[in-house]
Specification:
This protein has 79 residues and is α+β, with helices and mostly antiparallel strands. The chain has one helix spanning 6-39; strands at 43-45, 52-54, 61-63, 70-72. The radius of gyration is 24 Å and the shape is rod-shaped. The protein is built from one helix and four strands, in the order αββββ. Strands 1-2 form a two-stranded antiparallel sheet. A two-stranded antiparallel ribbon has the order 3-4. The termini are far apart. It folds into two domains: 1-39; 42-79, no CATH class. The chain binds zinc ion. Zinc ion is lined by residues 46, 48-49, 51, 64, 66-67, 69.
Length: 79
């Protein structure tokens, strides 16, 4: 058996719990970002009338259903 002082045991316990909480936070943040990216993957905001619409087509330019302007596709982080 390895002799461990009470202070070292408390420190190890706290370090493990903080590591567990930090890991859960990282997984939660990654999962939330992934779901957000999936949800807004096809969302486009028109540059002319600011109308937001979804367009799942693979064309480089999307046509706004309100004003018929051509819009470039952008990543969700740029919206
Ligand atoms: Zn428009």
């Amino acid at each position: 058996m390895i002799p461990v002082s009470l202070n070292a045991l408390i420190f190890i316990y706290l370090a493990l719990m903080l590591g567990l909480i930090f890991s859960a936070w990282l997984v939660s943040t990654w999962s939330r970002r992934s779901r957000k990216r999936q949800a807004f993957r096809h969302l486009i905001r028109c540059s002319m009338c600011a109308f937001e619409f979804e367009d799942a087509a693979q064309t480089p330019l999307a046509v706004c259903p309100r004003c018929a302007a051509l819009n470039e596709r952008r990543r969700a982080s740029q919206l």
